[in-house]
Amino acid sequence: MKNMKTLKYAWRFLIRSKSYTAINIIGLALSLACTIILVRYIHREIQVNTHCTDADNVYIPLRDIDGNVFPGSVGADNGADTIYFQPEAIKERSYFITSCNDNVTIDEKPYAVQVLVADTAFFHFFNYPLKGKRMEAPEEALVTREFAKRVFGDKDPIGQTMEYSGGKHLTICGILDEPACKSSLTFDVVMNLNLKTKREWSRMYIELLRFMPGVDVDAINASSNVYRQTSQGFRIRYDFIPVSQLYWNKELAASGDDPEIWHYSSRSHILILTGVCLLLLMAGILNFVNIYLVFMLRRSKEYGVKKVFGVQGRTLFTQLWTENVLMISIALLLAWFFIEVFAGYANQLLESDIPYTAFDWQLSLGVLVLLPLITTIYPFIKYNYLPPIVSIRSIGGSRQSVATRTVFLFIQYSITLLLIILSLYFSNHLRFLQNTPPGFRTTGILYTNLVAVSKNWYSESNEQKNKHRQNAQSIQQKLQECPFIERWFCGNPTRSGIYGAGSTYALINDKDMKQNVMMMWVPVDFFDLYNLQSIEGTLPQKVDRNSQYLVVMNEAAMKIFGYTRREDAFVRGEQALWISMGTDGKIIEGGLSLMPVEAVIKDYYTGHLTAGKKPVVYMVSPNSMGAQYQIACKPGKEKEIIAYLKNARQEIYNTEELDYHWLEEDVQALYREDRRVSTVFTLFSAISIFVSALGLFGLSLFDIRQRYREIAIRKVNGAQLRNLYSILFRKYIWVTGGATLLTVPLSYYLIYIYTKDFVVKAPVSIFIYVIAILIVVGISLGTLLWQVNKAVRINPAKIMKTE
């Protein structure tokens, strides 16, 4: 009964103070909505790969060969010359490989697929919802729900067959649904590792290891993560990392191996979003507490009288807590309404489809339990220990109350100004990245999987090889005849594309200077297709034999080798750069003799602009055969070329399915995190401005109303309008000025920390500070102006009678 009376009293008071209640609830709801959206996204990111059982104790060995890092396995056939652990230290292990942009045939129609080839133990490590039965026999395969819908529509795919390289016919035995968490490994089809021998797969196995309890993995890493020279001439080391850290690994992300299957992210990106989240939540809470203190000041006489009549601290706390719970509950419901309404935009902004999970109600419950306690503590301490006589006399006019509200407003303004400055810088930095020419052609470059050939085509029969060769020749004839194509060549974009990762090799010049440098293997048409500019020498137009390669360098590579003239430049490999077979059947190790540099090209950005222009050596080879093609399209003919290629596929393969994307999409993807950070800062700083304006409106509504009597007396004594404006605006100008003095150096320091490792970055312009200050001052003055105008035009006689 007593609790119901407290609840009714709290509700009645909130209804009476409807203006302040509305301001408080709307401001907190907006702040909570933005915070919850970011927290849900951050939670989903840090929960990546949690469908792996005990992900912190399942390890993948990273094999580092002369600076080239990729996931692998440990064994003598993989270069390991040392036993890092005993067999009995392993509780369970699994092997798998990935095959990006592979091909399967279903109902005589080819489909480009991302393939995971794994043994049956793989699903002891990773849990996927499964419809059907587990993969057991070598000729059985699993497909994902998305791939099944793409190929079979609403038809049940279980029991259907598909053909893979070497004439292998696979029976689909089950459908895999997406795991509840996000995965760093995505695929379309799962095949059994026993379908072929290791030699036939011709890919390096990747190993999953679950160690026995008590095994010291740190001690294993201390031994394995040291370079050792192998008998083949290269250096190798291993680093065993847990699956839980796989998503954040910078070395693997930089290698760019099978990017359609392996996915990575950056911890710095999550830290930035976490900072935005905390700042916005703090701004919302400060605004809420500040407005609530205005509530309290209007009731200080009431609390003083109650304390005179013996009200205990527990009763006061219960009343304050109940009022806060009511307002926060309404704000939380309103926040979830905003989240639901703008869910599509939020998912598009964060480029992540965030499902509703148990974490959502746990988060809401945490907000509902903790936030009322946080917002109640200060008002309770303030009024519980305030002497009744002081509370009765002040009725909102105490200097301490004014100082407290001013401090809260100062912190809130500092947060808002900091968010605006950072959002302006990140927006400027993003424009700088997107508008700086990368040094090569980006428009009209098409990457497409045209030839339906498996990655393991060389293990097929001669009849199948001849069929693939004929189909490839037919495709190439179609490309030659296409009026919408300027030029083309066959090559995997992840290797021979303009953003190809390449590999690190140790090269030695004619002065025995050794440099570890990025090397790319490209066909002769690479330079013309991307409009790369030669500044010395002549770019190769033809390479005579498959066993011959020509060397091209960029300016940065010439510089690190100490060359100023192309004619003087010669390099060779520290070990064989390629291996071929001579006409007599003998193995030939190439690249060990000094090779002249045929041409020098102008530097361009090989990746993210902030990494700068890197030294690159190009080994130019003849055009090769394969599934993927890079095509330069004539301007304005993008739609026509896609239609043309689909018709060509229909004619040759009886399907119009075409797997393709544009280089411009890769450029956009390169700056995805920069764009996300910029947009989040811009949007949330705008919301912070709105929340701060709401808070300022509520505070000024009370503060200026409290000074009506003072204004009236000053007007009677002859004060002019400019004097009154100066008096009423003074406090807020000081608050804005103080916030500016704090946030300008703080924001500059944060920008410096963020960009200190960038080779290329947008300059910090004074204009972003000027614009940010003008925005805050303009909105503040706009918020205050109506109330100040109303106050300075009051009738002194009327106020003296009523006050």
From TrEMBL:
One of its GO terms (cellular component) is plasma membrane. It is a multi-pass membrane protein. GO terms for molecular function: transmembrane transporter activity. Keywords: Cell membrane, Membrane, Transmembrane, Transmembrane helix. It comes from the Bacteria. It is found in: Cell membrane. PROSITE patterns: PROKAR_LIPOPROTEIN (PS51257). The chain crosses the membrane at residues 21-42, 270-295, 316-339, 359-381, 402-426, 680-702, 732-754, 766-786. InterPro entries: ABC3_permease_C, MacB_PCD, Macrolide_Exporter_MacB. Coiled coil: none annotated. Residues 278-386, 683-796 form the ABC3 transporter permease C-terminal domain. Residues 21-222 form the MacB-like periplasmic core domain. This is MacB-like core domain-containing protein. It comes from Bacteroides stercorirosoris.
